[in-house]
TrEMBL record:
Keywords: Protein biosynthesis, Transferase. Coiled coil: none annotated. It comes from Paenibacillus flagellatus. Its EC number is 2.1.2.9. Pfam families: Formyl_trans_C, Formyl_trans_N. The keyword Oxidoreductase does not apply. Attaches a formyl group to the free amino group of methionyl-tRNA(fMet). The formyl group appears to play a dual role in the initiator identity of N-formylmethionyl-tRNA by promoting its recognition by IF2 and preventing the misappropriation of this tRNA by the elongation apparatus. GO terms for cellular component: cytosol. This is Methionyl-tRNA formyltransferase.
Amino acid sequence: MNVVFMGTPDFAVPSLKALIREGYNVVAVVSQPDRPKGRKRELAPTPVKAEALAHGIPVLQPLKLRDPAAVEEIRALRPDLIVTAAYGQILPKSVLSMPKHGCINVHASLLPKYRGGAPIHHAVMHGEPTTGVTIMYMAEGLDTGDMISRTELPILDDDTTGTLFVKLSEAGADLLVRTLPDLLAGRIEAVPQNDGEATYAPNISREQERIDWTKTSTELFNHIRGLNPVPGAFTLLNGEVFKVWESRKPSGRSPSGADRAPGTVLQMTDDGLEVATGDGSIWLTRVQPAGKKAMSVSELRRGAPIAPGTILGAETT
């Protein structure tokens, strides 16, 4: 049986590894084109491409999968099954109809919630208690296909989008190899999604990265960890970008900042930077001033302390 795997970032690598480890005949990998990286902006292979080449698997990197030439390249592989994981392009009908066992996708959410390109970010930012992976048949819509199998994971207080990427990528790979035997044997009864329960998780915009101090402390805690490690939450300090990487989970409503404008610095200690919020205050613990590396608040305090009364988020001093 010929399997074509489509994926691009680190999230997809465990699924590709699992297919190879279990002896599936991965005849080719399709990945996004190489992108410039680093200060020198040199072209670097995608993580999935690098893994495929390490196993001697041919790699296709069409700019647009809808290009007729790209479609014919895939058709020539005579795929019996196409597996995708965070590939980054919607498959056209001409590709979806090729394999006799269909096209399936390893998606990092409990569908129909969080369809789209940033499901992990949005689940954390919205304070969800659980998340998971859904394997589904692919359809022409955005993550709208019938669901084949799923697995759930709790979102812990110390989780970030980064930690969940790792957990969900491994969980997705495990679910994939547990699902395939029944799928290929025709023992799967896929379940249609309830479109009325669908929510969407588009890629994070620059405006979504900005901290809104009028939100509750819990909302801000989830916002900050939901954008860690990329792209990072930010506010402004003296008119310059001031990134916030970590904060402490609020233990309850804090009266400390109740009479201060949201975004006002209340105090700075080695334990953190206390800032007024919409319902009290939150303690920031790891930050990054403009032009500097990320650092603990205790490090910042020793070099460039922030005076109480400073307003974070203001466009100018």
